[in-house]
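Q: Hi! First time asking for a complex rather than a single chain. Here are the components, and I think there are two in total. Is that enough to go on?
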Amino acid sequence: MVNPILLIAAGLGVAFLLPVIDRAGRVVSRAVHLLTLLFGLIVSLRWLAALTGGAQAAQIITGGWIPPIGINLRFGPLEAALVALANLTAIAAALYLAHHEEQSTVKSLVIQLLLVVGATGLIMTRDLFNTFVFLEISGIGSYALLAFGRERDGLEAGFKYMALGSAASTFFLLGVAFLYKLTGTLNLDDMVGKLSGVTVAGVGTVLLLVMVGLMAELKLFPLNGPAIDIYDAAEPGVNALLVGTTLNALMFTFFKVMALYRGNSWLLAIATVGMTTFVVSNLLAIRQKKVRRMLGYSSSAQMGLMIFLLPFIRTDVVLMSAMALLLLNHTLAKAGLLWLAGIHGGRELDDWRGAFPDSIAMRVSLAALILAIAGLPPFPGFWGKWQALVGLARSTAWPWIIPLLVGSLLELVYYFGWLRRIVEPAGAESRGSLRTAFSEVAGVLLFAGLAIAFGVRLTASVWGGLGNPAILLGIIGLVLVVAQGISQKAQAALSVLAVGWVILRVVQLAHGCPLWDVRGLFLVVALFGALIIAIAGIGMPAGRGSFWGLFLILVGSIVGLLTSDSLLGFFAGWELMTWSSYFLVSQGREGAKPGLLYMLFSGAAGFLILGGLMAAEGAGIDSMAQLGQLSGGTALAAWCLLAAGFAVKVASWGVHIWAPGAYSESPDLFTPFLSGVISKVPVFGLAAVAARISAPAFAAFLGGIEPAHVLAWVGGLTAFGMTLLAVFQEDAKRLLAYSSVGQVGYIVLALAAMTPLGWTAGLWHVVNHLLFKSLLFLAVAGVVYRTGTRRFADMGGLITRMPISFVSVLIGIIALSGVPPLSGFAGKWLLYEALVDRGWLLLTGFMMFASAVAFLYCFRLIHSIFLGQLKREHREIREAPAPLLVSQGLLMVAILALSVRPRLLLEPLQRLVTGIFGQPGLQFASATKITSSLGYFNAAAIMTLVAALFIVLLFFLLFAGPKSRKVGQLDIVYAAEVPPPPEEIHYAWAFYMPYERAFKPILGSTVTAFWSGVKDVTEALADAGRRVYTGDAQTYVLYTLLFILVLAGLGLAG
Amino acid sequence: MPLATKILWSIVGVFGALAYGLAIGGVIRKVMARIQGRIGPPVWQPYIDLGKNLSLRTATHHGVMSFIAPIFRAAGGIGVFLLVPVVIGVPALENFSFSGDLLMVMYFIFFGSLGMALGAAEAGHPHSPIGISRGLAQMSSYELPFALAVVALAAQAGSFSIREIILAQQGGWLHWNLFANPLAAAAAFLAFLGMNMYAPFNIVGAPQEIPVGPPTEFNSQFLSLLMVGRATFAVAKIVLYMDLFLGGAHSLPEALVKTFLIYFWSIFVGAVFPRFRTEQSIRFFLGWPTLAGIAGVLLVIFSH
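A: Yes, that's all I need. Here is the structure of the assembled complex.
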């Protein structure tokens, strides 16, 4: 094995020789430069392989002197990994920088190499003075590289940056000098031992100096002003190089010197500074309009997060891997994004609308890296954060979880604010293309590829290997996203095959074991819903080119979530589902803004859930099955947080404002899935959690109020409020959107009853809502596809042109409203009986009212589209495409089957609830009669009655009285006048005006006002915070002073 | 009872209900005319109308939905009637109430209204959807007090079975829900006014403002079926109220007396009060009747 010291030696040697080699031509010097870095990469990777294989870490003694006298270097697995990462970043950076005139000189090449050498040295050395030397090499290198920029702002920023850097290393050097005086050694390992024997009072101040030096180098808040200016002013490629080399090396240095800080007050001080940086930097970033500055704040935040973790690593090794994953993630994502920022050239956020319109590779890389840095799965940062949280949850430091989650939410706000521009449709002003040479973008592609590869690998490790259907669906989806040139219809057909294959796999897997647990039920719902959408997709275009790829990733994530038993597997699937559905929502014509709102509320829901899961993890529970072991206050906390998160995701009243936009602006083919399947996933979560954590036991904690009863009212209020709002919508999809949210409210309410009958009602409704709401949304999708409008006032009379779609909507609204003889009635019947059975009488009454209100929008939907007057321009319109009708046909068949024989579903549901509650909710008195403790109904008998009456009366109509004749639409009794044209007499706008008048007092928009208030306050805070950075060097000096005082106060207190 | 006999009795029952329903309609028109100082049509006028409609020489419709809407309407009316027991203890007159409980009846009521609305809307006359929007708005608002009353009764009887609710009221008229839970009864009887769409809640039909609309767009046998539906539905409703609040009936004469009285409640009110606008009637139902309904439910909760 090559001696690692050669890494430093080779780098230094080549750096000095490069100007000479350059005489032979720039190509040669570049090649030598790259070869040197490649050498470093290969050597460190081979060492890494050997070290992880169990080899001993290398101890290198220089100059023949034994430490502590001589300088020694260490090369363990961490060091090897960091050096490899530094060399890798440097290679990609060199390729990128070669395309930028100012950085293509030989001087730049030399300095780039010196930066790598400096970083390697910082990582390997165990000697404090030696650390200072490498600190200086890195520092000088970075000032020089940054100074190559010729802009005035850049130079000024560079100067301030240099001033701060010099001050920082001065502090560090002073600290080291005093430490030497106190301990008589410069060797770190030796010093740790000797320091404990030192009892001089000033030792704290000395340690403070070292710490301030390092923290200033790492640009923690509020010392990060100049660094952020640098991000804005300097070439992004240089910053990318610094992230991968110097910054990581500094972080590792801090990690090494942590051994000196023993006292709890020091640890608290470090954690406080780190967390403050994390939260504040993320807060300030949300008001940034400039991309590079935003990335700068983000770097500060990420450094803050890692610094925050340092004190805890000593007590928990899990945090070590958390830290490693976070660092890897930050390097890949931040460097990649900085290069992308350079290639794209857009400085303002708004310059990024529809970025890279002609290059899917760049768009995918951009999206992947943003997701990575935002801490979403499958990227390494997600797993890092999870482990960090688990580590915290299991220690007494758990309260830190709260600011960590708040900061992470803020991070989502600005990164998805950026993404919102990127996912907007490309316009004439969209910038960024792949016209540039491949080598310039190689680094981006490499880092994005690595992030994805790590991600897939990590996810597979949690979800049962690469062969798991969920992972395979995700990989097929990824391929489809990248694959250009396959037509949308072919992609939809492929999706049908892929989903069909998964269904077969699942059936196979389930063979012989009871599929009908809650999980099996939701798996069936999800896969059937996905299949329906994919079939419909063969008939009409959906969203943009990447629609089906993202769709498969989404389906895969739901399958993974449903089949994974560990809390981590569940949450990974949850977050994957969140972002993949975000992209799909954003593909709608006006979907970018509603998509952002969707993402932010989903993100907040995710963090609430994460909080709940951490309450469980803190108690040592890491699988769903063990949740039942929770007890006392922990159980209460877990239950409340999880329920709150799920309640946000089902858009309960009060947090519903994201739903109407997301549902209505999604691509028409995605909305059915959003409503039918995705809204059911939180219901699954609720069911899975509620089945295990017993909520009634909490009553004692809350003075007799049951949390389940509160949840029931939340569900009931949602059902009523959303139903009422649906009545006043002028847009078919918006109407159905409100309706969907309301319907899920019923499900939540029914499950909250926590009785066999309540669960039967809720789970029945899960299936039934999937069927009828997908049917309605698909039928409307066909109408929108043909007419090009969603507005009721622009439709009308389509029954003659689109009769099958009409029948779909008719069946859909009958099943929705609960009118017998279709399946909706069973749902209403079950719900009311369950509620009365539970003793929730007032709720029952209000739900009956809500159901009656639902008739209003049901009628409005079918009337405004299909009945009334046909517009003249729609006289030649065709029926929806055949595949769309096939999907609807499948749904109708399913609805009819459940209507005639509710036992098909009710019987398995009884087995399911018996498994949970120990007794069924229903009895089957005969083959068709269903009874509960309160009532009964016979679906087949009612169906027969209706059919018999219908046939008899039809015969009466046909044979009694004269033969009837069909007359034209305008052949109506119009008060002795000639009726005006159809457009003027189609009654569709403001359909329920009197209703609106009657309900005016309670229809205020207080909820919207509340949330815009939250937004305003957050933004005002961020704006106020940004004033900290005056750009004036004197204020920065003042901050440094204040920082030291605060740190001293915290650290020396103990 | 064999199914064939059952079916035979049901046919007899439906025709009986039709005859009774038409007659009641005639009586009401007569009474209203007398109150207003007119002579009014003969009591048997609805029978004449039905015969006239069936013997017209032409019939027109506006498409499939407008063709089958009267079927929906009539099937809705007859269906509801067939699900409500008329005379308790006489199997022939308990109809098919064993096939569905009170909830089934409540939702079957919507069946006819939905079909009617669809058919009228297809005819393309703008006044039809206006009438329907008013009707649905009013329907949803009286549904709240009615639902609360139903919940109170079901909780009181421990069952949604109409038969069980009747049986729980036996043992003298003071056991009737009218007296056992007067608050729920008040809510339900106020809701009944809206259900019947007589004044002050008759803006739905609005004979003055909308001189055209559903009835005029339907003619001959279509209109006959609508009349059949209306008549049987009216009977079904009063029988249901009798079962829920007046202890049901043990004989046919008892049923006739009780149902006639129930129907007259809305006539008394209708003859005295002027018409509400739609939003006024909505606010009315969501006001006192709803409070009465809530109080009725609370009465059940706290007395158990």
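A: The mean pLDDT of chain A is 90. Let me know if you'd like any chain examined more closely.
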